[in-house]
Write a structure and sequence with these properties.
Chain lengths: 561, 359
């Protein structure tokens, strides 16, 4: 068996093992050992786990995690599906706006987006102020620092992606079922209920589960929205163990990390079953494929208004709030009184500061390096897996393993590797690239695999008959055909890598500051004006990349995620 | 076995003999404790070659840290300063990780309450600066592991649009008034709620303090998981009417920019000192020492003065704008929490916090 595995596959397997085995080992080891005052490993113990299970906050924490993930998934699904249906299956006005807004939102850093909503919905924000103006009273009507606030912001964060993933589902569904329904006398609503959305149900279920998993492992919203209201979930417990105590309680943080790994492994197992079901309802058939557009008649303009409202909430409100904050010397809610204070001081500070310029450059370098390495590795691995060469199942399994690590846990595991492993790269930009490559390898592989599946093996067989060797075939036949898939893989990984906060939060050093983490630190250090200004500059740069991504992906009909 | 043991002993002896002069040489080269007459020249030459210094500080960047670094860079343009602003626990986590990972990035550590844990971790080294001599011996470390950089007075603050000056609480008891329920915030960090609890325990005694804190817990105080500065920002923005644990100069700095916020010193006024420390084997030891000199000098301390911070240097007074929060100028007592005290009381204060305030 071993003898049949070709050398490139062996190298790939060794690389993957070296990347993915140490995080498991170091995390479990440190969850089971004491640390002494100098931070060295001490005696073996179960105490970290015992302390968690006996703590009275643990039960509520699990319940919070569950409600939060479920709520976010439902909200994202609802907004995304409504948008996708309106955009793909109706003649509502202004449909193109939905795509533009979703693309722009892909470029907004999570932290910036969350902060915008905190400022907008905060106790003193314009939303509460308007309610107080309308209904009287001086106490705020809503408290954004709550489980509800977390669900709202996280749900909105995922809604553009839900829309982009669901629109092909509606676009490609067979209209003859709907026609049959209306022939039988079903109205618009019952057709929607019993046919359109029922056919989309497996896709909706899979996507909902995906958002559920993503929300379970998310850190940014729980940290910025949840912690001030004492709504703790598992991911923020890890962060607090490391940053609230003197000295940092690495053992308990690792124990929380190990528990999250177990939860994720179970969730992903269920997800792969759910996702496998999506093919059961194959709606794209060979015969007379022609999606039907629902004529909304006089509802057309109402739907148009809704279409304008959603991007307004998802993109315009947060960006306007951030711009307002960026122009103020110190943050205060919107008022005419504050107008004379507006100025560009924060932008001048940000653009003139070498450390902020450094953070922008570092982010771009990190994104580009991680995206390039992931793309190269996944091109080779993706081909091996799609063509089922010997050893490919192992490649597939290993490359997918990082998915069980929530970003904050993978960051913690690598922190321990760098601290105790002797590689001497802790805090360097190189270390951030290594971690990002490991984290995004699974995504890259999926992309490359989909790309290879589109290429029929007969092309490679033809090359083989013409006398080409396997490597020659790969480089001269497969690779050129894969280019579009790889470009979009590159851009996707790039966008993920530069957006990440929690993965690198524990790992950045002064000479490897990156924008996403700098924004997070700004919020914790009370530099809201600079946060907003840097965020505006960064969003502008990122929008260029996300537009490029969308153009490539649509041109070659690749999936968005 | 015996042969093996003696073999290792012999190796050990050779290594020790060889290493001893080298170690002595290294100690003489280490600029941290060097006191020769050519000290300053040596530091400048060394720093010129190093070209850089990395400072970890818990001072608020746009208020105080950046002006100090700019002043330093103006004086020594050949050294490029860079900084990281963090709360003390994150600072400790980073410095310990760097030391253990064998890749030191930090050159100078400035913080509040880290003197003892940094010493316990064995990751700092003693240093000497001629500037240190100006400071009172009882206010610095006898073993030269740390020197004071700034004092801070902590207390409450309030939003002046939401609370009229006459209605604002005047003492600790006033915060128990039910009308403030849900309107008070504090920072849930070591320098926030934990330090507040330590302060109350120190001034009231354990029993009274616990009784007070139990009543305070009924006020639903909002825990902000960020620096104390952020809590003041939330009060300014009108999210909360009162905050319990601001650095009292922060509201003054913001009020000058027009923000609706005012400080509220509570008797006795919680007082802490922050210190500068030097990590073992910093990557730029000469530049580090040069920066420590500057930070402790009258010139560097003057930057703190103009930033409305409280300089630790006995000959640099605080700006007169701060007079209304300096305890002895407004007839209040100081409740001084020394670095060892802060560290020793932390565990119990955290336990009280978890018991009473963590939901």
């Amino acid at each position: 068996m071993i003898g049949r595995i070709s050398p490139p596959v062996v190298i790939l397997l060794v690389l993957l093992c070296a990347a993915i085995v140490p995080p498991f080992v170091f995390l479990s080891y440190s969850s089971l050992h004491y640390l002494d005052a100098s931070g060295a490993f001490g005696a073996f113990t179960f105490e970290h786990f015992a302390a968690i299970f006996s703590s009275r906050t643990f039960g509520p924490m699990l319940l919070n995690s569950l409600v939060y993930a479920l709520g976010s998934a439902l909200l994202a699904l609802f907004i995304g599906a409504a948008q996708a249906w309106l955009a793909e299956r109706t003649d509502a006005s202004f449909r193109q706006i939905l795509y533009v807004a979703s693309i722009v939102s892909l470029g907004i850093p999570y932290v910036l987006y969350i902060v915008a909503w905190l400022l907008f919905l905060g106790k003193a924000g314009p939303f509460n102020a308007s309610l107080q103006y309308l209904f009287g009273g001086t106490t705020p009507y809503i408290n954004v620092y709550s489980l509800g606030g977390m669900i709202f912001v996280e749900g909105l964060l995922w809604s553009p992606l839900a829309f982009l993933l669901l629109s092909p589902v509606f676009r490609n569904s067979d209209a003859s079922f709907e026609e049959a329904a209306s022939v039988c006398g079903a109205g618009l609503l019952s057709t929607l209920r019993y046919v359109t959305f029922r056919m989309a149900r497996p896709a909706l279920l899979a996507l909902g589960f995906l958002v559920f998993i993503k929300a379970s492992e998310s850190f940014e919203v729980p940290a910025l929205v949840g912690l001030p209201g004492s709504t703790r979930v598992l991911t923020t417990a890890i962060y607090q163990k490391l940053t609230l105590d003197i000295p940092p309680d690495v053992g308990s943080a690792s124990a929380f990390g190990v528990m999250l790994l177990v939860v994720m492994a179970i969730l992903l197992q269920i997800y792969s079953r759910v996702a496998a079901q999506t093919h059961r309802y194959q709606t794209v058939t060979g015969k007379g494929f022609r999606p039907r557009v629902v004529r909304l008649g006089r509802w057309r303009y109402a739907a148009g208004a809704l279409i304008v409202t959603i991007p307004f909430i998802v993109v315009v409100v947060p960006l306007a709030t951030i711009l307002w904050a960026a122009l103020l010397p110190y943050y205060q809610p919107f008022s005419m009184k504050a107008l004379p204070l507006l100025g560009v001081g924060n932008f001048v500070q940000v653009l003139n500061s070498p450390s902020f310029r450094g953070a922008i450059v570092n982010s771009l370098v990190l994104g580009a390096a991680a995206a390039t390495l992931v793309t190269v590795l996944s091109a080779i691995a993706g081909w091996c897996v799609a063509r089922r060469v010997a050893g490919s199942r192992l490649i597939d399994t290993l490359a997918a393993l990082p998915l069980v690590f929530p970003a904050i846990v993978l960051g913690l595991a690598f922190l321990e590797i760098f601290v105790h492993g002797g590689a001497r790269i802790y805090g360097s930009l190189l270390s951030l690239v290594v971690v990002s490559v490991v984290a995004y390898m699974p995504y890259g592989l999926r992309y490359a695999q989909l790309g290879v599946i589109q290429i029929h093996p007969e092309l490679e067989e033809a090359a083989a008959i013409a006398g080409a060797r396997q490597t020659g075939t790969f480089f001269r036949v497969v690779l050129p055909l894969l280019v579009p898939a790889l470009i979009s893989c590159w851009l996707f990984v790039f966008l993920l890598a530069v957006r990440a906060v929690s993965l690198l939060l524990l790992l950045v050093g002064p000479d490897s500051q990156i924008v996403a983490v700098t924004l997070f630190d700004f919020w914790n250090n009370g530099q809201i004006g600079e946060l907003a200004a840097l965020g505006c500059v960064w969003t502008a740069i990122m929008t260029v990349f996300s537009v490029a991504f969308l153009i490539v992906a649509r041109r070659y009909q690749l999936p968005i995620a | 076995m015996r042969t093996a043991a003696s073999y290792f002993l012999a190796i050990g002896a050779i290594v020790t003999l060889g290493a001893a002069p080298a170690a002595a040489q290294a100690a003489a080269d280490n600029p941290a404790m060097y006191r020769g007459p050519d000290r300053e020249q040596r530091l400048i030459e060394g720093a010129r070659k190093e070209g850089q210094v990395t400072v970890y500080s818990s001072m608020i960047a746009d208020q105080a840290l950046r002006p100090i670094l700019n002043g330093f860079e103006a004086k020594y343009p050949f050294v490029k300063p860079q900084y990281v602003r963090d709360d003390p626990p994150q600072q400790l986590q980073k410095v310990m990780a760097e030391a253990r990972a064998g890749r030191m990035v930090v050159d100078v550590l400035e913080s509040t309450g880290l003197e003892v844990p940094v010493r316990a971790a064995g990751i700092d080294q003693p240093f000497w600066s001629p500037e240190v001599e100006a400071y009172k011996p009882e206010r610095r470390d006898p073993n030269n592991y740390w020197a004071p950089t700034r004092y801070s007075y902590l207390g409450a603050c309030y939003n002046t649009s939401l609370v009229k000056p006459g209605e604002a609480p005047k003492n600790f008891e006033d915060f128990l008034d039910p009308k403030w329920k849900g309107k008070i915030a504090w920072s849930s960090t070591v320098i926030g709620a934990m330090l507040f609890i330590t302060g109350v325990r120190n001034s009231m005694g354990e029993e009274k303090a616990l009784a007070y804190l139990q009543k305070l817990a009924k006020q639903d105080i909002a825990p902000i998981a960020s620096a104390n500065r952020v809590v003041v920002d939330r009060v300014m923005a009108g999210e909360y009417a009162l905050c319990l644990d601001s650095f009292l100069h922060h509201p003054i700095i913001s009020a000058r920019k027009g923000a609706p916020v005012a400080p509220l010193p509570l008797d006795p006024v919680l007082t802490v000192v922050s210190s500068v420390m030097m990590p073992k084997a910093p990557p730029h030891p000469h530049a580090a020492m040069l920066f420590i000199d500057y930070l402790l000098s009258k010139e560097g301390q003057g930057k703190l003065q103009s930033a409305d911070y409280f300089p630790a240097h006995p000959e640099v007074s605080a700006s007169p704008d701060l007079d209304k929060i300096v305890p002895h100028k407004i007839g209040l007592k100081e409740n001084f929490i020394s670095p060892p005290k802060m560290n020793a009381d932390l565990a119990r204060s955290r336990a009280i916090y978890q018991e009473l305030f963590a939901k």
